[in-house]
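Consider the tokenized backbone below.
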């Protein structure tokens, strides 16, 4: 008998405890304030960023731990760069070799230009010799007509004139050959200069790869996970860390089509988190899905027969987030209240209350 009485007392105490808990939760959790408002359950989320390697390689060191706050541009991890440094040294040597080739090719151009100048001088000499030979031939022809000069002398002068013409043609050919050699030498200069530019581009690319081997934070945030560890070999694009951007935090929740159609972008939102029901956090609607989807398993709806819901995002202001960075947590469930009627007034239970 005493045992049965004790059991009844324990059951009554348990029921009373549950009733008190439900009553307290009901008081702390805002209830529906009227027709001008609608609510949906959701979770706090943030933009996630995977910090990954650009090239395949071995992780040399990770400079941060999970939970650390990081700033944009802060080094987070380093990859081994021994191979890249060797490639850079090789490219620098190739650049030096190409620069020497440019100097050598330019010297060849100077030599070929000198050869052309010498050939042009020979042309001038041959032109003078031809002119002299033609004058002598003309005199010989005049004397021969007057029977003063012998036929043999006339023949010799004609031969000398033809020889002078041939010598001039040969000298002009030498000038053309010298010009062709100059063009070839200049082409070698251009090729050598192109090799210099290519080697400089290779050096710049390798140095960029070396710079990228130091993984830096793309923005302010907090380290959520260390995916890799020092010493691990990763492929190109291998993930090392996962960050969350604490300046881009929002709550995703779902509303039925009857309410979602009335929600406008920038509508006022009040968020009450399960973990901190004493606070009412302001936000604004930043996104409303254009198509409905089946109710996610994690979303509870008042009407279980409603199967199609619209996804809505309530964005927290960056200023508020920056003020309370260390308090920002993702994954926390809560309730988002949306003001459908711009003229409606928030009830006292949904008046903005943020941590000091």
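A designed sequence for it:
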């Amino acid at each position: 008998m005493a045992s049965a009485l004790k059991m009844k007392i324990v059951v009554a105490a348990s029921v009373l405890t549950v009733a008190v808990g439900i009553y307290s939760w009901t008081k702390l959790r805002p209830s529906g304030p009227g027709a001008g408002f609608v609510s949906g359950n959701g979770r706090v989320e943030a933009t996630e960023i995977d910090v990954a390697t650009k090239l395949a390689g071995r992780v040399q060191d990770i400079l941060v731990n999970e939970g650390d706050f990081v700033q944009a541009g802060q080094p987070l991890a380093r990859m081994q760069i021994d191979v890249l440094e060797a490639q850079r040294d090789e490219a620098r040597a190739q650049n030096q070799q190409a620069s020497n080739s440019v100097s050598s090719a330019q010297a060849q151009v100077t030599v070929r230009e000198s050869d052309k100048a010498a050939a042009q001088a020979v042309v001038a000499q041959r032109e003078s010799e031809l002119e002299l030979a033609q004058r002598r031939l003309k005199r010989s022809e005049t004397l021969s007509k007057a029977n003063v000069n012998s036929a043999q002398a006339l023949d010799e002068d004609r031969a000398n004139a033809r020889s002078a013409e041939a010598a001039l043609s040969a000298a002009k050919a030498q000038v053309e050959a010298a010009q062709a050699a100059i063009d070839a030498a200049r082409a070698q200069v251009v090729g050598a200069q192109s090799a210099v530019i290519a080697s400089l581009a290779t050096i710049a690319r390798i140095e960029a790869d070396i710079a990228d081997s130091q993984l830096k934070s793309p923005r302010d945030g907090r380290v959520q996970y260390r995916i890799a560890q020092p010493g691990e070999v990763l492929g190109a694009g291998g993930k090392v860390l996962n960050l969350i951007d604490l300046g881009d935090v929002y709550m995703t929740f779902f509303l039925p089509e009857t309410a979602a159609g009335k929600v406008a972008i920038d509508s006022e939102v009040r968020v009450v988190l399960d973990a901190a029901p004493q606070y009412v956090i302001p936000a604004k609607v930043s996104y409303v899905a254009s198509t409905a989807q089946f109710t996610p398993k994690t979303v509870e709806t008042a009407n279980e027969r409603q199967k199609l819901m619209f996804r809505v995002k309530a964005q927290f202001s960056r200023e508020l987030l920056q003020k309370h960075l260390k308090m920002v947590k993702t994954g926390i469930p809560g309730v988002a209240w949306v003001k459908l009627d711009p003229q409606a007034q928030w009830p006292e239970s949904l008046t903005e209350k943020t941590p000091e």
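Confidence is low (pLDDT under 50) at residues 15-31.
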